[in-house]
Amino acid sequence: MNKNIIKFNTRGRIVSGENSGWFIYVVDDVKNSGGYFIFIAQDPDDPENELGYDDWAADFEELERYFIYNYKVIEWFDNHDSSGFMK
User: Fold this and answer.
1) For labelling alongside 10, which of 21, 29, 40, 48 has CA 20 to 30 A away?
2) Residue 66 backbone class (left: φ over 0; alpha: ψ -120 to 50; beta: rest)
3) How far is it, in rounded angstroms, from Cα 60 to Cα 15?
4) How far is residue 79's CA from residue 64's CA, in Å, rounded to a whole number?
5) Which residues contact 28 (CB under 8 A, 6 or more apart)?
6) Exposed (0-12), middle (13-18) or buried (19+): which is 23, by Cβ within 10 Å?
7) How much is the pLDDT for 84?
8) β-bridge partners, 30
9) CA–CA dist 40, 24 (Å, integer)
């Protein structure tokens, strides 16, 4: 897996792997925290549905392993909408 497969600041849908059908949003926060934030939500557009969680990877290698282990296929969307992920 290379860095181009994990898209930052872009909404994606988990197609295969843990939480299939849920949505994902990854933030490159290396300049501030030194790592990467990973936001997962069942339905980020439904304010009543608060099912979701966040995670953090200390470096790109850890982020890459996280994706290999948990998320086999992500359908990335063209928009960069983070609404619903960062409540």
Assistant:
1) 48
2) alpha
3) 22
4) 22
5) 8, 9, 36
6) buried
7) 57
8) none
9) 5
Alpha helices in 3-76 (DSSP H): 60-70
Q: What are phi and psi of 19, to 5 degrees?
A: 60, 40
C-alpha closest to that of 7 among 53, 38, 42, 45:
38
Q: Is the pLDDT of residue 8 over 60?
A: yes
**What is the distance between the alpha carbons of residues 60 and 78, in angstroms, rounded to a whole number?**
22
Q: Domain locations in the chain?
A: 11-76
What is the average per-residue pLDDT within 64-76? Answer: 89
